[in-house]
Amino acid sequence: MNALLRRARMAEITAKEASARLSELQNAPVPSVASQPHLDQALKLATEIGHPVYDCVYFALAVRHETHVVTADRRFAVAATTAALTDRVRLLSP
User: Fold this and answer.
1) Less CB within 10 Å around the terminal CB: N or C of the chain?
2) What's the whole-number mean pLDDT along residues 60-87?
3) What ranges in 10-73 are assigned the alpha helix state H?
4) Do residue 3 and residue 24 come from a single domain?
5) Which residues 6+ apart lie within 8 Å of 15 measured at CB?
6) Strand partners, 32
7) β-strand partners of 71
């Protein structure tokens, strides 16, 4: 949702387009996963890479489930390179 908000604020998409994309995401066949069991790892990662913990929750989930975080946030992707688990964060190409 934050990415949609940012794109709308930058006038890359309209508020109506952001709402439509959010609806698509909510209807996507993606399972929900509880984040609470991963908060300790997220805090450790945030401390290690010097990045906000909310992104590191996704990072911790990716590590635990042996998958990847896909992000358009270059700063997060660069910060993740300081962690031993850098292969878990993939930057979307612009």
Assistant:
1) C
2) 87
3) 15-26, 39-49, 53-64
4) yes
5) 8
6) none
7) 91
* CA gap 17, 93 in Å, rounded: 21
Least Cα distance to 76 among 88, 61, 94 occurs for: 88
- The DSSP letter of residue 10 is T
pLDDT of 89 over the 70 cut: yes
| Same domain, yes or no: 69 and 38 | yes
Burial per residue of 41-72, b for 16 or more beta-carbon CB atoms within 10 angstroms, e otherwise: bbeebbebbebeeebbbbbbbbbeeeeebebe
Q: For 66, which DSSP code? A: T
- Mean of all residue pLDDT scores within the chain: 89
Task: Encode pLDDT of 3-15 as tens digits.
Answer: 888 889 999 999 9
- Domain coverage including residue 2: 1-30
User: What total of structural domains would you count in the chain?
Assistant: 2
